[in-house]
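in:
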């Protein structure tokens, strides 16, 4: 049973300990009601008597205050004039340098600065009133904190010819972080944490394989002492900021992060991801070294001996073991992880390269489920994710090392924490991460709470990982339905199909598909899809369903059906306002088709704006979404908002006019009685809001509801909630790349019919093929993909994750046949033609003149 040290007040006149306001250390516990709370740093649940005012957490070693005492309140009366500012520090530095006399040490020269640092940075309330902007009389708040002034101040201290003042600064703030003199319950009490979050050495302590570019000119701060103390600071900073549970505090933190520059915002996101990478790597090292270093924080000895923190480094003595070959293969990370941060492009390129694959070991929930370092970093990163607002692309939050966890086990653990497991709502709380440890003072057994899982923070998972989870859930559901069908067949003594079969005529594909789908029960949609074209040969192993999806989408989205229309400005597809009542069945079918496409890993040629996918996962539609669909109208609405004159001169009212599916003009009120409500300067924001809401929600509510029910009739699991709207668009529509890199496509190609890959590459037909492919435009590349794979889109995860195969067909004599494609297997079969001109001619005829199983 884990315990903590409780601190209580006594009436003795000779206090045992006066450190940080603690009057005594009493190990006898008074009889009183117990309070259950969580550690303000590591999130570990603690249970203590209600009379306790302070306690020391044995997990993170922080002495924390339960409630503010009268003494603390008296010390909190600090004027903004007592705070720290850039001018104060810079002035003191100039004063120290100006007063230099004779040959003195740097310690003597900068002693006044060190005294100032010790005085100002040791008091929480002084820091909370520091670096505030001049507006609002320098009122203490997160909003008024000047991050630029904080950075300039720290840089001024770092640039001194001696590292002693900065090292003293680190020691001072570390003591303050270990024993904060506030319960940190109010947003304005977190100003000091954001100030310390700008310390320039926080990232230097988080590199396992840092390679010095020039070992002869190392920074004066690149020492084990600085790295060790920087780590102690960053782990508590992350813990305190992440433990902000009040909605108002989280909102103010998100607003503050959102107001920072893109550069600073991106660096903080990378820093938190690096912190997670740091601890995941230590867990791997702990596994291969049979040690428990992953379950605790690194100490000074690990920073002073590089082989302890980085087992791949040669040890200073024979007593330390290097990382095993298996561990080195596992941690075969890109070079940028050794020298800096990694990009998504670098990660994709590294995975496509040759070499041993790290498949010997996967981190499981048992390894990281109780890691408070990872949990708090993920929780704080979620606040940055909320604050992002298009500052960074969604993949900037991906953590590449998370790909080395057992994601299926993580998903199953996450699933088991839900009372209702089969729901399509966004049921995870992006800001919740339960603790696995309870420090209990009583003799009662500790209760277990759900473990930390990465699925609780899906923005950390790469798109490939999320797709693997979705495919895993789909496969498991298909297998379950097949088993149920088999058991029913035995029980009823009647043959039953374990697949979802759709038989259609090519000329009547929409009507035949609708009839087949209407006859199916809802649970049958989760079976594996098999398509048959009536009157045509072929067994569906994946190719026929790709063709069916392409044809049905082309038919349903045809302008002749009137289900959708296309915006001329954005070329985006949107629901037709006020369609015929009979069209609701077709909207339902469109939703089912999109769900089946995801369920059967098929890419569709759609041009929906991002708003459709946001609505599918119940995300709120914003003005930016309307701007994507109707840029010209949105520009006019923005001009109305920015107009400084009297908008009544425009004679606008709360109504709108549009064309229905027959081309007739229809007028509708944006609000009840809107035709008589004039737009003024006071209500123009409401007018724009109602305009956007009408076209994006109200005018299509019936159509979208039918579409939504059809989609979620197929996609009914929790896996979809792991995806953002942009990621859902990518898995449905594929990657948005504007060209296919020939070298990347060549790297993933496999060959059959030759003795070796080298023989294939040296053969005439293969050389002719790559010469031909390298000269294709993007439109012709898409036609080729459609011929070989059944879809003209590449997968969401890029061309490097595709499969493509070239097979040689032996034929003696003069070859007159055309090349053949097996779309089920992404395979192109080539004959050995006599000349390159003949090869190109026959390949072009196959691609541009084929339909179904033959020529047009």
């Amino acid at each position: 049973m884990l315990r903590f040290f409780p601190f209580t007040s006594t009436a003795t006149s000779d206090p045992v300990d006066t450190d940080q306001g603690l009057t005594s250390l009493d190990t006898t516990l008074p009889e009183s009601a117990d309070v259950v709370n969580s550690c303000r740093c590591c999130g570990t649940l603690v249970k203590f008597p209600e009379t306790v005012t302070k306690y020391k957490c044995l997990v993170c070693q922080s002495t924390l205050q339960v409630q503010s005492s009268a003494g603390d309140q008296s010390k909190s009366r600090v004027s903004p004039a007592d705070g720290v500012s850039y001018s104060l520090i810079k002035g003191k530095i100039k004063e120290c340098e100006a007063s230099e006399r004779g040959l003195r040490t740097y310690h003597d020269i900068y002693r006044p600065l060190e005294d100032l640092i010790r005085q100002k940075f040791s008091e929480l309330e002084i820091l909370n009133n520091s670096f505030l902007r001049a507006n609002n009389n320098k009122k203490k708040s997160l909003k008024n904190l000047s991050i630029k002034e904080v950075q300039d101040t720290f840089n001024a201290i770092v640039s001194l010819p001696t590292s002693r003042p900065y090292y003293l600064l680190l020691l001072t703030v570390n003591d303050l972080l270990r024993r904060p003199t506030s319960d940190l319950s109010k947003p304005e009490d977190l100003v000091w944490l954001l100030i310390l979050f700008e310390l320039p050495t926080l990232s230097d302590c988080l590199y396992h394989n840092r390679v010095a570019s020039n070992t002869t000119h190392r920074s004066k701060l690149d020492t084990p002492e600085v790295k060790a103390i920087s780590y102690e600071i960053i782990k508590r900073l992350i813990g305190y900021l992440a433990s902000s549970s009040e909605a108002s505090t989280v909102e103010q933190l998100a607003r503050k992060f959102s107001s920072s520059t893109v550069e600073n915002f991106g660096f903080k996101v990378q820093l938190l991801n690096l912190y997670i990478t740091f601890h995941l790597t230590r867990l791997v090292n702990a596994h291969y070294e049979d040690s428990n270093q992953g379950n605790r924080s690194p100490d000074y000895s690990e920073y002073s001996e590089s082989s302890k923190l980085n087992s791949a480094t040669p040890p200073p003595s024979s007593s330390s073991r290097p990382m095993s070959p298996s561990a080195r293969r596992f941690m075969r990370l890109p070079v940028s992880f050794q020298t800096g941060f990694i990009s998504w492009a670098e990660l994709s390129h590294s995975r496509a390269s040759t070499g041993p694959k790290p498949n010997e070991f996967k981190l499981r929930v048992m390894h990281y489920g109780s890691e408070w370092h990872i949990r708090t970093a993920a929780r704080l990163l979620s606040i940055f994710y909320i604050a992002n607002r298009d500052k960074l692309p969604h993949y900037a939050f991906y953590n590449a090392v998370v790909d080395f966890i057992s994601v299926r086990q993580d998903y199953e653990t996450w699933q088991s924490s839900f009372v209702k497991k089969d729901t399509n709502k966004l049921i995870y709380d992006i800001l919740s991460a339960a603790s696995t440890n309870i420090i209990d003072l009583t003799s009662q057994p500790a209760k277990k709470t759900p473990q930390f899982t990465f699925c609780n923070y899906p923005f950390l998972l790469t798109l490939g990982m999320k797709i693997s989870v979705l495919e895993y859930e789909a496969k498991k559901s298909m297998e379950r339905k097949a088993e149920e069908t088999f058991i029913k067949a035995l029980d009823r003594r009647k043959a039953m199909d374990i697949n979802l079969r759709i038989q259609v005529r090519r000329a009547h594909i929409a009507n035949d598909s609708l009839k087949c789908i209407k006859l199916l029960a809802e649970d049958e949609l989760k079976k594996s899809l098999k398509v048959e074209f009536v009157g045509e040969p072929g067994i569906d192993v994946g190719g026929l369903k790709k063709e069916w999806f392409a044809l049905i989408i082309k038919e349903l989205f045809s302008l002749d059906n009137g289900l959708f229309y296309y915006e001329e400005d954005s070329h985006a597809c949107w629901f037709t306002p006020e369609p015929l009542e009979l069209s609701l069945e077709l909207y339902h079918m469109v939703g089912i088709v999109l769900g089946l496409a995801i369920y059967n890993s098929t890419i569709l040629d759609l041009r929906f704006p991002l708003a459709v996918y946001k609505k599918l996962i119940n995300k709120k539609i914003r003005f930016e979404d309307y701007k994507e669909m109707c840029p010209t109208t949105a520009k006019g609405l923005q001009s109305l908002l920015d107009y400084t004159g009297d908008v009544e001169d425009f004679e606008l009212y709360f109504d709108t006019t549009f064309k229905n599916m027959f081309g007739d003009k229809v007028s509708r009120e944006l609000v009840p009685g809107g035709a008589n409500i004039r737009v003024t300067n006071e209500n123009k924001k409401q007018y724009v809001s109602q305009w956007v809401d009408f076209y994006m929600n109200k005018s299509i509510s019936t159509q979208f509801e039918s579409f939504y029910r059809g989609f979620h009739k197929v996609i009914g699991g929790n896996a979809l909630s792991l995806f953002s709207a942009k990621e859902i668009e990518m898995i449905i529509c594929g990657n948005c790349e504007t060209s296919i890199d020939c070298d990347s496509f060549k790297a993933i190609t496999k060959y059959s019919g030759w003795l070796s890959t080298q023989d294939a590459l040296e053969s005439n037909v293969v050389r002719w093929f790559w010469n031909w492919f390298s000269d294709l435009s993007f439109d012709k590349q898409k036609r080729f993909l459609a011929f070989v794979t059944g879809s003209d889109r590449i997968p969401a995860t890029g061309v490097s994750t595709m499969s493509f195969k070239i097979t040689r067909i032996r034929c003696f004599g003069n070859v007159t046949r055309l090349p053949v494609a097996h779309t089920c297997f992404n395979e192109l079969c080539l004959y050995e033609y006599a000349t390159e001109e003949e090869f190109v001619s026959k390949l072009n005829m196959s691609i541009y003149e084929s339909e179904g199983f033959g020529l047009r």
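note: The first helix runs from residue 70 to 75.
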